Amino acid sequence: MIKTRGIVMLSLATAGLAVTAACSSSSGPGASGLVPPATGDAVSAQSTSLGTILVDGSGRTVYVFANDKTNASTCTGACAADWPAVPAPATLPTPLPGVTGVLAMTTRSDGGHQLTVAGHPVYTFSGDSVPGQTNGQGVNLNGGVWTVVSPSGAPDANPTPAGGATPATGPGY
After folding, report:
1. Which of 6, 81, 113, 138 could join 167 via S-S bond, C-beta 3.0 to 4.6 A?
2. How far apart are CA 50 and CA 76, in angstroms?
3. What is the DSSP letter of 34?
4. CA-based nearest residue to 108, from 138, 69, 52, 60
5. What is the rounded distance in angstroms from the CA atom of residue 66 to the CA atom of residue 146?
6. For residues 99 and 153, what is the distance between their CA atoms, to the nearest angstrom?
7. Which of 161, 157, 98, 168 has its CA nearest to residue 133?
8. 43, β-bridge pairs
9. Is the dihedral of CA 54, 55, 56, 62 positive or negative?
10. Residue 36, pLDDT score
11. Taken in order 140, 143, 149, 150, is the CA torsion positive or negative?
């Protein structure tokens, strides 16, 4: 009887861990559990739940803003608090492995230097708390849509948020 109860308890504990793992993987870093490594490079091409996209040197997802102009950021003030600019390094790197877009720099209205990829200023999202998250994908905030960036520097052509949800809007994203 004691042996049977121990086996049942062990089975329940194992099932509980499996459910916990399944639930946490859908809301944790990257819906598929892929966490891009921190490379220290300005940007790198990494596999995520949305395919191969650019991440910054800390492994955080990089985004572009539909309202930006070529080589010019329109995200300032409260927008910049939600979407921090990826800083341009003092010396721009030569082409990085897997990154096919041209890396350059633009000067922001606050005087800071921001990295551009194929002419697009790039940002991270304050709503991504750890590497691998793509919570900013498809978000319509600060007057335009935000999307992840392909290795060529092009905005994601399908701005549907990860998981297929309707794009978020408004200040509560």
Report:
1. 138
2. 27
3. -
4. 69
5. 6
6. 8
7. 161
8. 56
9. positive
10. 59
11. positive
Phi/psi for 104 (5° steps) reads: -150, -170
pLDDT tens readout for residues 34-61: 565 666 678 999 988 889 999 998 999 9
Tens-digit pLDDT profile for residues 101-146: 999 999 999 999 999 999 999 999 999 999 989 999 999 999 999 9
Q: How far apart are CA 48 and CA 112, in angstroms?
A: 29
Amino acid in position 21: A
Q: Which of 3-17, 29-43, 79-93 has the lowest mean pLDDT?
A: 3-17
Place of tokens 């086996």: 7
pTM for the structure as a whole: 0.73
Please tell me the distance from the alpha carbon of residue 52 to that of residue 26, in angstroms, as a whole number.
19
